[in-house]
Amino acid sequence: MTISSPQQLSDRDLLDATARVAGAERRTTVELLTLLAELDARRLYLGEGCSSLFTYCTQVLRLSEHAAYHRIEAARAARQVPVLLGLVADGALTLTTVALLRPHLTTENHARLLEAARHKTKREVEHQIACLAPQPDAKTLVRKVVEPRLVQAAAIAPAEPAPVVQSSKPAPPVLTALAESRYLIKVTVGAETQRKLRRAQDLLRHRIPNGDPAAVLDLALTLLVDELERAKLAKVKRPHSTKPKSPDSRHVPAAVRREVWARDQGRCGFEGPQGRCRETGHLEFHHVIPFAVGGRTEVANLALRCRAHNGFESEQHLGRWKRA
Known about the structure:
Elements: H1 11-42, H2 44-47, H3 53-60, H4 65-80, H5 83-89, H6 95-101, H7 110-116, H8 122-132, E1 150-152, E2 164-166, E3 174-179, E4 182-186, H9 191-203, H10 213-233, H11 254-264, E5 271-272, E6 275-276, E7 283-287, E8 302-306, H12 307-318
Antiparallel strand pairs: 1-2, 3-4, 5-6, 7-8
Helix pairs in contact: 1-4, 1-5, 3-4, 4-6, 6-8
């Protein structure tokens, strides 16, 4: 079925059509994996003038390098573990997670590993692999990186002007699981942040004699989280016994914030046909019955919502609006 005018579909039909086409795409991908696996086994790419299956996928099939890599990895894994194809077809595994798991799959463990990876994110599968094959701790390193700037290259010949090239930028942040309870964090910081780290190391020599940045970071984050929870969630060891404010006020009292946060477990409480929202960031206190139409500011009428779902439910009740 070809959909030429999705604008004419109802909301329900649009959702159903999107899910149907996504399922068809997965089934087509599985068919491609099956064909690639057999083509790879016969090495037919050689007769087509390609030195590798990767070259065949990128130059003949016109796949991107990223798409080619993941499909080749999945195709080769499927030759060893055919059950993979069914899991990819029904969406239980993605090509990315299959590529991550492939080096670790054996005849003995594949059933257990694949079951544990069902419907997991890339980060969750990376953690699963780190538990299976722990890596050693990374060496502590703090060093200055080259500032991004224009660098004049050497002249090719005296008569030719030298080309201007851009130096490489600092690497993006990285968070990688090394083992079940150990992670590697790589991040580029500014000079002022580096100065604060050095100052914190000096002030903490009595507690952290070697100035281990990991220990300093852990302590700093512990203090930061405590401060943020006190400010945003009124999470304190000894709550003040103050007179509760009127539920007719929009202000959410500290005691109410604590109770709502604990009840909703610090997670968006919106429930849709596919289950509960998983967002734990950008959370807001949402009036189930909008405050604008008489909803009261009390535990029974408040729930945690991420910013997107808070706005979505407001639109359902009050209609769409534009921020000034």
